[in-house]
Amino acid sequence: MALLLALCSLLFAFCSLAQKVGQPLPKWKEGGLDIHHINTGQGSATLLVFPDGTTLLVDAGAINSRDWRTNKPRNIPTKPSNERQAGEWIARYVQKALAHQTSPVIDYALISHFHDDHMGTPLNVAKQSSAGYTLAGITEVGEFIPIRKIIDRGWPDYSYPTPMTADSMVSNYRRFLQWQQQHKGMAIERFRAGSNDQLVPLKSKKYPFEVRNIAVNGEMWTGSGNQTTSLFPPLSSLKSADFPNENMCSAVFQIRYGKFDYFSGGDLQGVIRFGAPAWHDVETPIAQVVGPVEVQLVDHHGYPDSQNGTLLTRLQPRVMVVPSWASSHPGKDVLERMFSEEFYKGPRDVFMTNLLPEAKTAIADLLPRLQSESGHVVIRVEKGGKKYQIVVLDDTAESFHVKAVYGPYQSK
Known about the structure:
Layout: H1 2-17, E1 33-37, E2 46-49, E3 55-58, H2 86-97, E4 106-110, H3 116-119, H4 138-144, E5 147-152, H5 168-184, E6 187-190, E7 209-216, E8 219-221, E9 228-230, E10 252-257, E11 260-264, H6 283-290, E12 295-297, H7 309-315, E13 319-322, H8 332-339, E14 349-352, H9 357-362, E15 376-381, E16 387-393, E17 402-410
Parallel strand pairs: 3-4, 4-5, 5-6, 11-12, 12-13, 13-14
Antiparallel strand pairs: 1-2, 1-15, 2-3, 7-8, 7-10, 8-9, 10-11, 15-16, 16-17
Helix pairs in contact: 2-4, 6-7
């Protein structure tokens, strides 16, 4: 009887990981952890379905159609097409990924920081809500799917390190929050560094699952209890030119499910410009409290100021996902560091969500080492967290068709 039960358990685990190329991705099943890195070509968006079915959307990017540096059109195609804006495509993806729900709902939405490729910008967008705010990124997602709670780094005053009253993105977002709070009952909270009880399973506590808030606004978990320490000096002691930038203030978290670990660092930086204060490297101290992980969402899209050697040495990710959307994603030096065994030994697989032609030219000699250059990248973790697969989905249509499957990988 014991042997039969063991065989049934193995069969269940195999079936839960079974994805077939050319076929639609099977629906999420209770006990599994799904992490969908959604590619719209317009910024970052990650949907997580916890083992109990609780849902978390991290970011909903919708970049400005004009480059703020040159004021010229970006001309970056939206995936799967330009027929809709990025926020609506994200919402439609979420609805499909949550097909196991009768009425899909986002339990938590987390905005890692206030940049257009993570929250959406109202600039050069004509689409308006009936409530008077512009529909772009997260404000557009909320038009199509109920969001029960939003968590960000600025609530309620949005004043760190300086007041954001002149920021059009934040102003539009705050109008959205106010309307949603008053008319839909949305809850809003500030991301709390050190906490492991802010993003929690809402339907069941029976799974060995935890979301640990690692850092935000320069406040970092110490690794002990819920205690934190400050990475930034008091603002009163700094010249304004040395104030922490938006990326340094990113909300950072780690997920643990059994032996499986996942790290999301927003747009953290760790390779600082010449002459910058040493504390502008926030990757190094944060890496010390994180340790080895199975999967990392690569910091700052693999931009040249990210993924320093200390971070790689500490995290030693088996899989790295680059949420690429620009020609600078990833930098060649960054990709070389990611593949280098000087920082840690052993195999590692790298997946891109949207590698642009200019980026392919810049990293041409490293292209053969990539597992995937485009597509939605889904981490599918089996019940209990012992094994996981990487499933790449077609991003040219809404079919959810599987392009490739990697693994299963063994969690350590």
